[in-house]
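== Folding task for one protein ==

=== Format: two labelled lines per protein ===

==== Paired sequence and structure tokens ====
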Amino acid sequence: MLGAIIGDIAGSQYEFYNTRDYNFEMFSRANSYTDDTVCTVAIADCILRNRRYDVGLLEWCRKYPKPMGSYGTSFNRWIHSDDNSPYGSYGNGSAMRVSPVAWAFNTKEDVLRHAKASAEITHNHPEGIKGAQAVAAVIFALRSNPSAETIRDAGGEFYPEFWAAEYDHEFNETCQGTVPLCLKIAMESDSFEDAVRRAVSWGGDSDTIGAIVGSMAEARFGVPEDLKIKALQKLPADMQEVVEKFSGKYMKIK
């Protein structure tokens, strides 16, 4: 899950002002965590504390109501509403927050079930659920076989021949417009840092592309220690605590 957080922070200042510079600065003073990190930490905390996903997500997002870049309009309404029913979203928010699920459970069936559960509290459109399940399934598969072929095979179950598609650089907040692109970037990269740099410098929804690609790249390559340290320094103490507890309990050290 730290890979998602690093990708989010790296892309944070470029979400609305895209860069095509591969050598962009990843941890400048202008970079910070966004809603992607808040939601990812929330899902991890729910797993650690055996809480319902909607309860934990509401608690964390209400605690951090104004992250860099803010929340999406519909999601923000959900956070502050008395009616916390799902709202049919197929946005990429379900895919960017799902990575803890892929590390915490040890069968594909359980991973897919929890990915669906973590998505459908808000993103109950079939494409919203599909995006979350695809990312979780790829990370789960990479845990035992970290290779480009694993991404192709596991991701291809959800988005056939995603690797052969052409993608534009436009801002796209949907799962169907984001997740296949992220799969392709993660498959074609040759290191964790290369994956994040390719993701952010692609343009579009930079922080979320960075988060989704980073979550898969972590499972494939591991995360360099210097990037771990820099990312944790950007987080509040309570988020650091969740990351450290979750990583210690569930994640292999690569």
User: Anything to note?
Assistant: The two ends are 13 Å apart (CA to CA). Residues 2-250 form a domain with the ADP-ribosylglycohydrolase fold fold (CATH 1.10.4080.10).
